[in-house]
């Protein structure tokens, strides 16, 4: 008796040591992979930020009922002096209305705009404000941004109908991007149960890779785009293989996995900040566009094209899920992983496919978002909350739900900006979220059994 | 490299005001997350409730700071009900989604131009700490304590108040978790249906837990605001909640001492790494084989990257942190 129990104890001890060692080996592996991935990128994007600079932007702004349209003003002379008045540097705004003037240190400066160099017919909104004062403490990053607004801010008072239509079109565009980004989020939730808070970073990844290829390497965007999407898919696969597949294998609970994804999101976002710096920047190709008018709606060809491509992609995803063998398997795993795997479906393979597809679609969304707005390290984490509202509205875990929900949230958010101030236009999404959860927690297309 | 200075700063961070306000937020989060199993990802919003409740009273109503606590409480209860009512009947991740969204909205509302006259926009509120300052028995110009634990009079006062609150709430939570109420919430964490079958109103207990945790979070926001002498909307971003969560997991979830020692360790590690990296990159970028790895401006992101990595590794390899027990981890797939 006594002997066997001692043997057991020794056995346990050995086992413990072995598992502990395994843990440490796993830990080291993870660390190496992470460290490698952090530093693998070249620091090219960062190089120009090593010095302090003041980024001055001159924008001709027309505000039409709270919706601001900005056009860059080219060829305006800007000069920077120290607080005591001695000259530091000067420059002329480029095609995007921006000029970067480097300054020797974090200090207080005065930024002056030369009114005589403004193009004819353009005046500053506040004509007395030809000088911006920069305090020493306002350098939160190495580049301090200053914007001079030209143009008028009076409402032109377009008819209500026209405004609603314009918002609706903008809403459809936003909704398509949200839908594209959140399909993966919803499918990953459906197949693995993971609420992936790092999904926004997958969107950012797409935008940043597009920036890297297009701006830093000079690859035309049309060639870069498929690469971006493919790399996004690989990124999704890697996230699954390096982290979440391992966690599932170790039998770590879903809530723990959720918290891990939060950690991953923080880490990735700061990795982007480390590589890319804190400001937002436009892509090279298709960045200057002239809006065309179709009746009351004005839209640039670029935005129209991305919207059409998004729509095609969404229809393709829906058809794929509906018709193809793999698509059916994905839906089966989404519905009930155990049942699906007992019918001979390779669940792990399906999960890998879902991560790949989710990553690719998120990267595509990031690329389009980067074209639409600009590329920045927080572009995806700003969207994640709309994506969650979308998939909750559509039905958590249901693939079609993400399409429908994301689309509706985009439209609602844009329409809401008719009544809500532009800064708060995301707030209605929270109310959608709350109302859906009170009234119909399973969402539009979800089934009741999923909840609670 | 000035090693002594780095070590002094690290030691001083152990008992600094940052550790104190994090500890308060973590104690609150511990009630929700550790004991009840509620994923509150919006603790920053509860902190903002406290800070703004405080700031607004003195700024606009001209009444004493005690009213600030009352207004903060009202805010906390409203916010708690707003996020709790729709989600507490549902699976745990819904609460996470709604709280993170609510926290973001709270931040957007308080920093918006639209509500600038109430919340001060992105400048925040800056002149409200006078009545608290006047209560201080210490000479604001004087130095108190011995190195490295040496603080100016006002900091010393906030630190003392902060840690007293930590002690008070730690004791309260300790007693609470020994009480029948504590047993019920812990049972909810383990098996909600079992508790329901005993005739307990699970929904109501969860709501109480959410709001009690939120109230302690509110005091955290107040201490932070009083120490800084200002309320800034961007100090209550969603990442703050996650840093508090990291600190809590580091100390040990569902343990009172975990929620106090965790934040102390978190800040010591953070200050050490921050100081170390800053010293390392002070004169020239940190390089390996001539390949510039960390520049001066990148120290911030690298630090936060390490926090994120730390949270992931902790959750994976030691979810119970330093003091927790694995049995008490509420982290199954509910």
Explain what the structure shows.
The complex is a heterodimer of chains A (452) and B (334). With 452 residues, chain A is of the alpha+beta class. Chain A folds into two domains: 47-150, Immunoglobulin-like (Sandwich), CATH 2.60.40; 161-450, ABC transporter involved in vitamin B12 uptake, BtuC (Orthogonal Bundle), CATH 1.10.3470. Chain A is 56% helix and 14% strand. Chain A is built from 13 helices and ten strands. Chain A has helices at residues 2-40, 44-47, 160-192, 199-216, 221-249, 254-276, 301-323, 325-335, 337-342, 347-372, 384-394, 399-416, 427-439, and strands at residues 52-64, 67-72, 77-82, 87-92, 98-103, 109-113, 131-134, 143-150, 291-294, 297-300. In chain A, the strands form three sheets. In chain A, strands 1, 2, 5 and 8 form a four-stranded mixed beta sheet that branches. Chain A has a four-stranded antiparallel beta sheet with strand order 4-3-6-7, with no helix packed on it. Chain A is globular and about 75 Å long. In chain A, 44% of the residues are buried. Mean pLDDT of chain A is 80; it is low at 1-6 and 38-50. A two-stranded antiparallel ribbon of chain B has the order 1-2. In chain B, strands 3-4 form a two-stranded antiparallel sheet. Chain B contains 14 helices and four strands. Chain B has a single domain, classed as ABC transporter involved in vitamin B12 uptake, BtuC (Orthogonal Bundle), CATH 1.10.3470. In chain B, 52% of the residues are buried. Chain B has helices at residues 3-14, 17-35, 43-61, 65-87, 92-111, 116-119, 130-135, 153-178, 180-190, 192-197, 202-228, 238-251, 256-280, 299-317, and strands spanning 143-144, 151-152, 286-288, 291-294. Chain B is mainly alpha-helical and 334 residues long. The interface between A and B is large, with 60 and 60 residues.
